[in-house]
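Internal tracking record. Fields below are filled automatically when a chain is submitted to the structure queue. Please do not edit lines marked as system-generated. If the sequence contains nonstandard residues, flag them in the REMARKS field before resubmitting.
Queue: standard
Priority: normal
Entity type: single polypeptide chain
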Amino acid sequence: MIVAIRISGLVEMPREAQITLDRMRLRRKYSAILLQPTPENTKLLQHVRNFIAYGDIDKETLSLLIEKRGVSIDKKKIDSKKILELLDKKGLEGAGLKPFFRLHPPRGGIDSKIHYPIKGGVLGDNKKDINDLIRRML
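SYSTEM-GENERATED OUTPUT FOLLOWS
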């Protein structure tokens, strides 16, 4: 699974990027979504890479994310193990969760809103380092 977190706000953002982020359900700053690693989703992520941080999420971080920040559609208690089993088959909405997560700003702050390959940046593809960022945002 790939997780995408919106880092930038709306100021000076091109209209095309705003529309793309809106369709991806990343409508607010510090909201996150889960995506399957398909070619279509990869192209979407490349289109808005200047405004989001994304990478591969591991099972431990995913269960923490669902447990702490998952919002149930029908206001019931969330069982993260059960949802992890249903996630690959039905997706978040089929498992009874809203399709996005609202996160806190990262503890310790964002060092820089520059691209990842440059030291200290968070924008773009973070690969496995996205898990550390998510843990700081829970």
